[in-house]
Design brief:
Helices cover about 25% and strands about 30% of the residues. It contains 8 helices and 19 strands. The protein binds FE2/S2 (inorganic) cluster and fe (ii) ion. FE2/S2 (inorganic) cluster binds near residues 73, 92 and 94.
């Protein structure tokens, strides 16, 4: 049987530091939705992994992203979100346009060779897929469309038009587990029959019915609705089956059967043993409140079950009792794929 990554990789701060540099520094990260930047003259702060970012929509209507760190001495230039023509650093009031250019710095006329042109905010990158906003801490990364691979096409094929989705709510949590443990839990449904009774009532999670596929950095799981239902959820609607996508390194996208719905969010390492996770829920404009409440209650239950699982796994791994675990070749092949991509990225 295939071995997992060494368990030391889940607890060693030096490995996380390497992951930050080799994996996250140049990775597109889901940050939020276009409704956060509704019109020219708005900005919103977010992170690309753990890198602080500010996204702006200046008067020219262009989306731009910058590292949210003042070029003077490092204070964040923006906080939260808002409508404003400039970003003024609260520390010494250096003032930047929403295009990132430094407009003014108090007492800079006293400095013999101070050139505002030298101190613009460091550019990062921003792009969108439907209403979904992605950021990248790198100034010139691969195009987002390339990074997303076949995910948009697969979602479209299911019959879900992402442009018609409306943001509903954001769910946030922190988990006492390494980010890879959280991703790996997302990547297999071998545990579904055992740990998620409600999910297993809804979807056929048996090894033959529950389809797993990989395509580049994308891993996809497609579960058909169980014959005869048996679930409390009302699954009639446009979407006949579920799609759960994972885009390496750390993005999860969930679509449940029934009415138009999608939730999307990253798993972000805070420390070797702590992961921040958020999930933005979107629904079709006509989806009724009752159905939304049903889905959120269902997903909340699954989420609570998963919390117990990943935190338990992390305790076992961090105990140092064993050097590694094993992967079930068929049911856990998406984890094998995730671990290979991670291994390759760290080895380069
Ligand atoms: S750190 Fe921003 S103005 Fe000084
Ligand atoms: Fe789970």
């Amino acid at each position: 049987m295939e071995k997992t990554l060494p368990y030391s990789w889940y607890v060693d701060p030096a490995i996380l530091e390497r992951e930050q540099r080799r994996i996250f520094a140049g990775a597109w990260q889901y940050a939020g939705h276009l409704g956060m930047l509704p019109e020219p003259g708005t900005f919103v702060t977010c992170t690309a992994g753990s890198m602080p970012i500010v996204v702006t929509r200046a008067r020219d209507d262009q989306l731009r992203a910058f590292l949210n760190v003042c070029r003077h001495r490092g204070f964040p230039v923006a906080e939260g979100s808002g409508r404003r023509e400039t970003l003024q650093c609260p520390y010494h009031a250096w003032t930047y346009g929403l295009d990132g250019r430094l407009r003014a710095a108090p007492r800079s006329d006293e400095e013999p060779d101070f050139d505002v042109g030298d101190f613009g905010l460091r550019p990062a990158s921003v792009d969108t897929w439907g209403p979904f906003v992605f950021v990248n801490a790198a100034a010139d990364p691969e195009p987002l469309a390339e990074a997303l691979g076949s995910m948009p096409a697969q979602v479209e094929e299911l019959g879900l038009d992402v442009d018609s989705l409306v943001f509903y709510s954001r769910w946030e949590t922190e988990l006492e587990a390494n980010w890879k443990v959280v991703c790996e839990n997302f990547l297999e449904c071998y545990h579904c029959q055992v740990a998620h009774p409600q999910l297993a009532e809804m979807l056929d999670v048996s090894v033959d019915a529950y389809a797993l596929s990989t395509d580049g950095r994308l891993s996809s799981q497609r579960g058909p609705v169980r014959d005869g239902g048996g679930t409390r959820m009302h699954l009639d609607g446009e979407l006949s089956r579920s799609q759960f996508h994972f885009l390496w390194p750390n993005l999860g996208v969930n679509i449940f059967p029934g009415r138009p719905n999608l939730s999307i969010g990253p798993m972000i390492p805070r420390s070797p043993s702590r992961t921040y996770r958020f999930l933005d829920y979107f629904f079709g404009a006509d989806v009724g409140q009752e159905w939304i409440d049903e889905l959120l209650a269902f997903d909340d239950q699954v989420g609570r079950e998963d919390r117990g699982l990943v935190e338990g796994v992390h305790r076992g791994i961090a105990s140092g009792a064993l050097e590694h675990g094993f992967l079930m070749g068929r049911s856990e092949r998406l984890i094998g794929h995730f671990q290979q991509l991670t291994r390759d990225a760290l080895a380069e």
